[in-house]
Amino acid sequence: MTATEAKTDTIKPGMKVMTMLEAITDAMRTEMRNDDRVIVFGEDVGKKGGVFGATLGLQDEFGEQRCFDTPLSECGIIGAAVGMAVYGIRPIAEIQFLDFIYPAFDQIVSEAAKMRYRSGGEYTCPMVIRSPYGGGIRGGHYHSQSSEAYFCHTPGLKVVIPSTPADAKGLLIASIRDEDPVMFLEPKRIYRHGKGEVPLGEHVVPIGKGRIAREGTDVTILCYGAMVSVCEAAAEESAQHGRSVEVIDLRTLVPLDEEMVVASVQKTGRCVVVYEAPKTCGYGAELSAIVAERCIEHLEGPVVRVAGFDTPFPYTLEPLYLPDQKRVLAGIEKTFVW
Amino acid sequence: MSKTKKPAATTKAPPKVKARAKAATKPRGKQLAENSLPRPGFAAVGNPPSHTGGLVRVLDDEGCIEQGKDPNLAEDTLLFLYEQMVQVREFDRRMLMLQRQGRIGFYGPILGQEAATVGSTAAMEMRDWIFPALREGAAAMMRGLPLVEAINQLIGNGNDRCKGRQMPCHYTYKEGNYYGMSSVIGTQISHAVGAAMAAKIRGDDVVVLGYLGDGATSANDFHSGANFAAVFRSPCVLFCQNNQWAISVPCSKQSASETLAIKGKAYGIPSVRVDGNDILAVYVVTKAAVERARSGMGPTFIEAVTYRRLGHSSSDDPTKYRDEAEVKEWERKDPIDRFRRHLLRRELWDDAKETALKERIAKAVNDAIAAAEASGPPADETLITDVFAKVPENLKTQLTEVLALEGRRVNDGAFPL
Amino acid sequence: MSELLTIIDRDGKTQKGEDPNLPPEELKRLYRLMVHTRLLDERGLALQRQGRIGFYLQATGQEASHIGAAYALKDSDWLFPAYRQPGILQLRGVDLEKVISEWFGNDGDTSKGRQMPVHYSYREINFVSISSPIGTQLTHAAGAGMAAKFRGDDTVFMTFCGDGGTSSNDFHSGLNFAAVYKAPVVFVVENNGWAISVPQRSQTSSESMAIKAQAYGMPGIRVDGNDILAVYRVCKEAVDRARKGDGPTLVETVTYRMASHSSSDDAVRYRDAKEYEAWQKKDPIARFQLYLKHKKLWNAAFETEVIESGKAQITAAVIKAEARCNLPASSMFDDVYMNLTPQLKAQRQELMDLIAKGGVGAECGHFPL
Fold first, then answer.
1. ipTM reported for the complex, 2 dp
2. Closest Cα of chain B to C217: distance in Å?
3. DSSP characters for C171-205?
4. Does the pLDDT value for residue B6 go beyond 50?
């Protein structure tokens, strides 16, 4: 399933063409119908239906008890979600932008992530924190950052990032059903970017399994979120130069589908890691380290990172900041100069 | 309009205002007790005001001064306040239009809140500092930020002081002691308090005005900022523009407290609830709070009750979540109309003056737009400058590598908020 | 607002009409709990001083405050405690061996040795895992209260923080959320005068902690925290209010931290001995003893029995707990997630292999706080 435009006349039965945003809403709707413990809250998620519209219609269908607006306090949102999860319901907390999550950082890394461990497994924190992240919407530094690495660095949290509408639905449902706290980061730039076929009703994509978005034999690109379609396009262009590029959409950063990564790089012998976040200490650094540790005998060139700059996220010069097709292509070529 | 183009002219008004206002606030001294504001009509939070009562007003709906409340401001102060409000509104209208035309990317309109911003900023001295939130850009312009510079920021062009790094409406104006804000709600509150603490430590005669909205009272920084302000008796004024809406969340769902002003009590901060659409009331209340801070008596919390008549920003559609009747009701309470009625009543204003003012403003705004739009985008190098004082080598390499690639383009989406 | 509610006066007599008239057996039980809590604290500190446990934190002086508050709850009600409410464990009948095992972090510890001493967690009594960061439990209680309300349960949630906790982010958000959603929560602020070395007057300029409730639109009550009956009565009213659906209450219990912040702290360095002596005269156990004496429920024999039985139980539990085994090294990898991730499995294997070879284990220093 890719995020490219699907024609309505070729839709398979049981499928519907949706944007990622619609698929996310559909996932929440599906789970809220399935399980009355599931509730959704955050800033502006009620009447307004979320600033991006991810919760549109949920309050109408499920009432103000199960989909509601909160005071403007991320610390309160996540802290309350922790209490709810400990008590036994399934909160889905929306943080309006990942850039706004820091007041809740303590609650996430010190509380949600450690609840199971610190209570010896007696109390757990099954909850989902949904948050749009990443650039591409002219949002300046407070509405564009990719800070997934902070959360990947916190044991106890799972970190999931979809790149297609179908995955967004399947992964979100899996996240809601997961017994551990999940950071569900939504690449907002592709919220409405392309549509794709999404299974209606029940659809679960397991957490911890990557997806080979495009098969190839010469070089592996590891990517996630909004970078997947950029990498696919670069792979397509590279094919015209005779390179066979394999694109792996990680889908889950924690726990990582390490075997898929290793198998692919061992097969191709080359690896490019693509992510939007600042280059230094980004999640791609972890990927590079894993490839170095486990695939060194197979490597035919350096592991190359294509990433955002080590600068705050700019407003006007955003297009220059974000890794694009050209930069990915240049990254691919770098692995061949050896 | 000429006032914002000539900083000197703008800065003249406040000192004059001060002289008159002082006379008007006599007697002070002992009466400015630590936990109460002495001025008649000020709501002491100790006697919790109801939502309708306890609101400080000077002008009634018809623009008449309520009995015994005339602050006796100088005529040119009154005219200054009026002209600023009209200018703010016109600038706001034009900028929103530019956004609709796709000429700027985003805009956060202040329609309906002109009195709250203009009245409070005018009550400060130029040496005082201002820590704004999204809807107080007018304060920068009142302090002398040229219109063209404001528009440069809105466009994010090469002449923008922020070098195109911030979203629109995130002005910065250091010469005017106007701080460049973040988009994150409430963070400026602790900054304002910290600046005031620093001013106190250094013995500077500086008061800090920190703006916030009703939503920000729920933010962490309100809690820590207000607490620090009180514990350290810092010379600041926390000015809350209660415009009733935090994007789509009404004030009633933001807090269960009787009023926002009462929150000051949790920190031991005297608080006032003022009609935010009454410029004279806003002015005198802020002035008293500033004087209190300046005389070493610590912070004051002001809740200015006003209304956000448009959406949260150019990306928001308020009809989805609120009743149009409510908006209509607040249109009738328009702060500019109310003050104009007052000036007309006192024969300080007339139609000819109004027309002349509007023409002057229109021309100034037009000229500023033309000048701003003539500027190109920021240089690519600005992407890596100012991250640190000195550009590190790795950043140079990162940029050089990318600039070496040709035909780069990234598709941009639209900003939702 | 600043009025301090008291029932038992200095002479152990009660204000007319305010005695909640608890049955004699219950009064004696409360007394026993207070004394045992203090004895447990004494033993905990002694074990720390002897180097047998790494850290200890006493609640001395605050026995009335937290036992009185929790006594107002039903057993089915939940607690989101801070770290100075150990009396609740005995109130709700947690086996002492389990409690003391937590200090040792051995295989009898329900938290599996993952937390510092006194950071208890007992699901069996609805006592939610304690965190070291200040105040985080306040939003949890608000959230749990919201959840119970959504589900229509009649559970009430009691959470504790200190005077320092009122400055935390979570105090602000927790109280605001609880009030906006009318959650069935009782916030007990144990104002013990000190946040480690920072006195209350440097913590806030407000006239009281209770007054802070007004900022959120909930009732705030200030009660003598060294008067167990007053604390109980006020909390009972707050609990009933919450259970009826009338929303949260803030209760400020004015008390005093008689000990240092913890075994790593020395309060002599920053606080006046006179202050301590003044509060010693207000000792909550002594005050309650006088009350019982008046009611003819206390005599020297009872006192001896309470103390001796307490010591004996504690000693027996210490012996049993100390004899328990350390936790297996592999347990370090459990409970990070419900299931081990492949990465954790690999890391665990790596460690087990190293341990098999011997010589693994880093030197550790001492805790300063």
1. 0.90
2. 4
3. HHHHHHHHHHTT--EEEEEEE-SEETTEEHHHH--
4. no
